[in-house]
Specification:
- It is built from 21 helices and five strands.
- A five-stranded antiparallel sheet has the order 2-1-5-4-3.
- The protein is elongated and about 100 Å long.
- A hairpin with a 5-residue loop joins strand 4 and strand 5.
């Protein structure tokens, strides 16, 4: 029963953590009525919580494996209470920066669940499970929607203090329902880092999550104040629109994880980054509020599905180093939300509009789309290479002129010839002399007519002994139908009963 509780409990923990994480950005339009700060300082106030919320994700992922999610959540929520109270009594820009830095702990707990929860489920459900947990992002929507409404009635300071009660409730919940017997992974931190930092896929996933989750965070913290200042919307209306953005991105995250369990994750990411590219181009033209809403919702859809897909891929590639790998990628996603608000504000001060910032997002998304396409075809080639290398059947590929391009290990085992001895040679180097000229003429006639030939043929090993093989030759064509290579696949049937049957070759 305790193990079944972990997914709902940890998802609720993430909701609470994210509710605290975006307190300042959600209430900023109220706070600036009491604390005089410049637009540039306001951008820093909304961005500062992202710093600790990103950096701490790396050690939190590692520590989750070491001591378990239960203790990490309890300690995190206890540590959040002082900065939340400090913000509620803040009266200066410095107070907001200090308090904001430490409420970043609320965003850092994301890497706890994505490290802990896969331990309770089979691999074919990791995408959906991490997607459900990631839906805890809805905590940002809850605060963005409810905090302004509560603040309008009770004041922003009292609203902030309400969150201390919420943190207390979940400290108790984790003490009672947290899993004390969670499986621990005690691989040394340095060893985990050494095993992942040279893997280019880790840094590619960092880029992808920098865009998908980074855009989610950036829009979450930037939209409330931006909509008020740029479109003169009411503060509560701006909060509700921001909550709508967050809700779309959050509820689509489990869908992204579920789709990744069913379909090729890299193909899904192609659609995700194509969506980002088009949406960011639309936003760069500084559209009306209605078109801006369309662009934002498209970003939310792409971000939500993309976030779910990426954390399906993580356990697939980094099963033994899940804690540190999840932490690094999650940290980069958080940092992806730190820089855009500052950059957009700076660009607006310099140029008077946000077009360059949104255009930059479209270009980075386009570059990511190109990388995903490369990864997809690279993976197909890698799989093909593994099949050739591990197959027990001898394989040989020649160019259209009959020169050998490659052979596999089984070829060497069956014939005695190494790749160095065969590459660049003609396959007739294996000829036993037992087949007639007419035999080969009919073979090649069938290959040209049907595209393949199959039958028995005598060949000679390196040691001079003849052997009978069952051979299949396929003509490989390009998109225009022109033959570019030939692939031969064979097995030794010398001592099998099959060798005693008629030697007549077959075309099929």
């Amino acid at each position: 029963m305790n193990k079944k509780m972990q997914l709902p409990l940890q998802t609720m923990n993430l909701i609470v953590g994210f509710m605290v994480w975006v307190l300042l950005s959600s209430l900023l339009s109220f706070i600036i009525e009491d604390i005089q700060i410049t637009p540039q300082q306001a951008a820093w106030v909304t961005a500062i919580p992202v710093i600790l919320g990103s950096i701490l994700r790396i050690p939190m992922g590692y520590l989750t494996n070491l001591i378990g999610a239960r203790l990490i959540f309890i300690i995190s929520f206890i540590l959040l209470i002082p900065p939340v109270y400090y913000i509620s009594i803040a009266n200066s820009f410095i107070d907001l920066v200090i308090g904001g830095l430490f409420i970043g702990i609320g965003g850092a707990i994301f890497s706890v669940g994505v490290t802990s929860l896969p331990k309770y489920y089979s691999k074919d459900r990791h995408g959906f499970v991490n997607g459900i947990y990631g839906a805890g992002n809805i905590g940002t929507a809850i605060t963005a929607f409810s905090a302004p409404v509560v603040a309008a009635n009770f004041g922003w300071s009292t609203t902030v203090q309400f969150y201390m009660v919420l943190l207390g409730i979940f400290i108790v919940a984790n003490i009672i329902f947290g899993d004390k017997q969670e499986v621990k992974v005690k691989t040394p931190l340095i060893q985990q880092i050494k095993s992942v930092y040279k893997n280019e896929k880790l840094w590619i996933f960092c880029l992808f999550y920098f865009i998908t989750f980074g855009s989610f965070v950036a829009f979450t913290v930037y939209l409330p104040n931006f909509l008020v200042n740029n479109f003169d919307l009411d503060k509560v209306d701006a909060g509700m629109r921001t909550a709508g953005f967050i809700a779309v991105a959050t509820f689509l995250r489990p869908l992204g994880g579920w789709l990744a369990d069913k379909f090729n994750s890299l193909i899904l990411l192609m659609y995700v980054f194509a969506g980002f590219t088009v949406s960011a181009v639309l936003l760069s033209f500084a559209p009306s509020i209605n078109l801006y809403a369309v662009g934002c919702i498209s970003i939310a859809i792409s971000a939500g599905i993309g976030n779910g897909v990426i954390f399906k891929l993580m356990p697939q590639y980094f099963n033994k180093q899940a804690g540190i790998a999840n932490g690094i990628v999650a940290a980069m996603g958080g940092l992806g939300g730190f820089f855009p608000p500052l950059i957009l504000t700076t660009l607006y001060d310099l140029t008077g509009h946000y077009a360059i910032g949104f255009m930059a997002l479209s270009q980075v998304a386009l570059a990511s789309l190109i990388i995903v396409i490369w990864m997809y075809y690279q993976e197909k080639l890698t799989i093909s290479a593994k099949v050739i290398k591990t197959s027990p059947l001898g394989m040989m590929v020649t160019n259209k002129n009959g020169k050998i391009i490659t052979v596999n290990p089984a070829f060497t085992k069956l014939t005695g010839y190494s790749p160095e001895e065969m590459v660049g040679e003609n396959p007739n180097k294996l000829s036993s002399g037992k087949q007639t000229k007419k035999f080969y003429e009919e073979m090649w006639k069938d290959i040209q007519q049907y595209g393949y030939w199959q039958g028995k043929i005598w060949n000679k090993r390196k040691d001079g002994n003849d052997y009978l093989e069952w051979l299949t030759i396929n003509a490989i064509q390009d998109d225009s139908g022109e033959i570019i290579q030939y692939a031969g696949i064979f097995s030794d049937i010398t001592d099998s009963d099959f060798s005693k049957t008629d030697l007549k070759p077959q075309s099929i």
